[in-house]
Amino acid sequence: MYGGIRCSLSSPGSKPEVFPFTLINKFAESRAEEKNMEEKQIQIPDVNAGAEERDNYTLIQETPEDDLPGENGIAIRYSKDFNIVQANELLRSKQSDLTLMESKLIRLAVSQIMKGDKDLRTYKVNVSQLAEFLEVPKTNVYRSMQDINISLMQRVIFIRDKEVPDKKGKPNYKILHWLSSVEYKDGTLTYRLSDELKPYLIGLSEMFTLYSYDSIIKLPTNYSIRLFELLTSWVNIIIKGENTPAFPDISTDPDEIVLAIDYLRDFFDCNDKYKSAGDFVRNVIEVNLGFINQYTNLKVSFRKHKKGRSISHVIFKYENTWNNDPKAEEHNNQMLDTIRSIKNGEPAQFETDKEVITF
After folding, report:
1. What's the helix, strand, coil split of the chain in %, to 5?
2. How far apart are CA 317 and CA 257, in angstroms?
3. Which of 88, 89, 4 is CA-nearest to residue 264?
4. In the 8-state DSSP scheme, what is residue 282?
5. Can you say how many angstroms the Cα of residue 58 is from the centroid of all Cα atoms in its chain?
6. What angle in degrees, to the nearest 10, is found between the helix axes of 222-232 and 287-295?
7. What is the rounded distance in angstroms from the CA atom of residue 178 to the CA atom of residue 156?
């Protein structure tokens, strides 16, 4: 197998519990409306384990009744608090390398998907508003839009068939497009995610990853966004101490994951880039991990594992999932207290920036 860690159903170890601030890795589903329209019980399935393990809680985002799609699409709602939720199978797949603007536009559309959505929608993005939201000069955004309608339609995703290799033993792929349509006209981009992506974006109940748009808004490269997502997809297992090494012959700590260099090259669509593994690690892993440590609440270091003289694997170590942020640590501890109360069958409250949620 390429790499990663497998989920174990063993009990968490004795190390301190850690729950990341912006990297909650959960998605909320409405369970019931028992008392009145304002009071809801929300159930959040575990990301990396099966659907039966549901022990953490967060807010959901819902579509306002007056924000229904029209014939030509609806305006994007800009919020850094909106969540991006993807099936791990999609998130960990090989994907065509996107430009930074393309990468953030795709994720902006994904962040619009709300609880209860049955279909994907067509969205309109005003370039001036987009520049303000992303905190970049308008001239840069306008320049990026000139050829984006053509390039975005050419970007593809390779979903690996785990069961059926080809005759040479190499994996087969199902190839999907990010978008089904895109048009740029008079300072407005109109685009729609491909319906082929619905199983990976809508109605997810297990094996997915969630993070807020705010987590990636300052990341300066597509590689840094993709590496952030990849590392985030294993945060929950690291937190709970349930990681089982995928490579027993490689010595690791409980807060480390191992990824094969061949998998990482494929993941970043770099099979034909960077002649040596050392060049790839230096230019893709090291540089972009630096961006993640600088601009996000995730703090990760890495080391190289060699077979002979060649780098065969990269070992990532989760140093601190809130990156020395006191506010994030306070949020983390409050969330854990809420979870413990719910597990014990006690009433619990969790205070967010917007409201107090009662469970």
Report:
1. 30, 30, 40
2. 7
3. 4
4. I
5. 16
6. 70
7. 6
Is residue 312 a contact partner of residue 306, using CB atoms and an 8 Å limit?
A: yes
**Residues contacting residue 114 through CB under 8 Å, at least 6 positions apart:** 61, 62, 63
Q: How many CA atoms lie within 13 A of 216 on its CB side?
A: 29
Cα(354)–Cα(29) distance, integer angstroms: 19
- Helices 100-111 and 222-232 sit at what angle, rounded to 10 degrees? 40
Contact 229, 86 (CB under 8 A): yes
- Cβ count within 10 A of residue 239: 25
- Helices and strands in the chain: count of H runs, count of E runs: 12, 18
DSSP string, 218-270: T--SHHHHHHHHHHHTTHHHHHHT-EEES-TTS---TTEEEEEHHHHHHHTT-
Q: Report how far residue 85's alpha carbon sits from residue 95's, in angstroms, rounded to the nearest whole number.
A: 17
pLDDT digit string, tens, across residues 98-126: 999 999 999 999 999 998 899 999 999 99
Can you tell me the distance from the alpha carbon of 166 to that of 213, in angstroms, rounded to the nearest whole number?
Answer: 38
Distance, first Cα to last Cα, the chain: 41
87 neighbors 201 (Cβ within 8 angstroms): yes
Taking only the tens place, the pLDDT of each residue in 175-211 is: 999 999 999 999 999 999 999 999 999 999 889 999 9
pTM of the model: 0.73
